[in-house]
Known about the structure:
The protein is α+β, with helices and mostly antiparallel strands.
Amino acid sequence: MALTLKERNNLTIFMNHARVTVSQMIKETTYPELKLIYERILENMRHVPINIKSGSSLNESFFSTIFGENIKKMSGLVLQSAIRIPHDHLFDSYGNIRSDGALTLLHELSHVVLPESAENFRARVGV
């Protein structure tokens, strides 16, 4: 879905603020495990594409509503990831980012998928 100029600018500003915040968290933490997690989140912010779909939810049923998802697929030997989030969940009617949409986007960016598998990550941090 094509974004308006205002939506694109607001998303860029939001992502820039989020990257600065996570970078500051990396500098301030005294726990190596948290530093590693924050570094992976920052990598996701830099490299994982965000696909914005039309509508207010990705899937809706009697039991649940899906507002965002982190899609993983294999391309050759490389695990690739992308985030899918509905337009009307991320933006209000004025093109501003909604607070619940921002939380969903940050949640999806927090999935640690790059550049290693969850098993390797857990083994490395000792979980």
